[in-house]
Amino acid sequence: MGSRRLVARIGAAVLLLAAVVWAVAVPGVGTWIAAAVLAGLASALGGLVTRGADRVLARGRDAIVAATQASPIVVEATEPYGRNKHVGPIPVGREEQLNSPGWVTEAVATSVYLTIEATVERAVILTKLEVRVESRSRRAPGNLVAPPDSGVYARPMAPEEARTFLVDLGEARPTPQEDEGVPGFPYSVSHLDPERFRIRAFLDRPGDVTWRVEIHWRCNGESGIAVADNEGRPFRLVRTLPAR
């Protein structure tokens, strides 16, 4: 952008110089009028290109700010009694065990706890929670292996007051529904006043579902979605018990 401005200014200077030379070399009132017109064109050219460049730069700054704007909330997700079975043989090394993508939650239902707080000074409005199913199978994997010490893999959490929402992962479009006595959305959070939610997800028949939680927010005229998952991987609920 700097090179374009330089070219515009050089062009304007050339026109201005030509106007001066013409006025000096060729006498007459008409010549002076023509020279004045050339000088005016030179000034206008420089001004238009410079203002255009300034507008482009301003738009570029706005685009960069919009693209790099951070989420105004931080979400901590925990599944205290999840990851209790492994699909296939359990890796040998401890690090390999903890980081294996083969861990699943084998149960009829599971609870995911979300702690949401604002990272900005002003309040952030949480407009809704959504569950996004990434894969679904009606057949549970048949090679589930239990770890020798489930305490190593489960991450219990001290009971805390949380707003409970129920969701049936077997539905075509699972929609979290507030539990009895729990207000519906929207909610407001700040850096001093977080909110805690409990997502009670269940399957009413055998199946294998991977899923994430999306938290929709609005703040200072902006809106967006924060995603809660299992440390970068989707939550995975497997039910092996037959339906009642």
Proportion of residues in extended strands: 25-35%
Q: How many β strands by DSSP?
A: 13
In percent, how helical is the residue content?
Answer: 25-40%
Bulk shape: globular
Average pLDDT reading: 78
Largest sheet data: 8 strands, mixed
* Order of helical and strand elements: HHEEHEEEEHEEEEEEE
CA-CA gap between termini: 70 Å
Low-confidence stretches: 1-8, 12-17, 19-24, 29-68
The number of helical segments is 4
Which structural class fits the helix and strand makeup?
Answer: alpha+beta
Question: How big is the Rg?
Answer: 32 Å
List the helices and strands and how they pair.
Layout: H1 2-25, H2 29-68, E1 73-78, E2 85-87, H3 94-99, E3 103-106, E4 109-118, E5 124-137, E6 144-145, H4 150-153, E7 163-168, E8 177-178, E9 187-189, E10 195-202, E11 207-219, E12 222-228, E13 235-239
Parallel strand pairs: 3-13, 7-10
Antiparallel strand pairs: 1-4, 2-3, 2-6, 4-10, 5-9, 5-11, 7-8, 11-12, 11-13
What does this structure look like?
By secondary structure, the chain is an alpha+beta fold. 30% of the residues lie in helices and 34% in strands. It is built from 4 helices and 13 strands. Strands 2, 3, 5, 6, 9, 11, 12 and 13 form an 8-stranded mixed beta sheet that branches. β7 (163-168) and β8 (177-178) form a beta hairpin. The longest helix has 40 residues, at 29-68. The chain is globular and about 50 Å long.
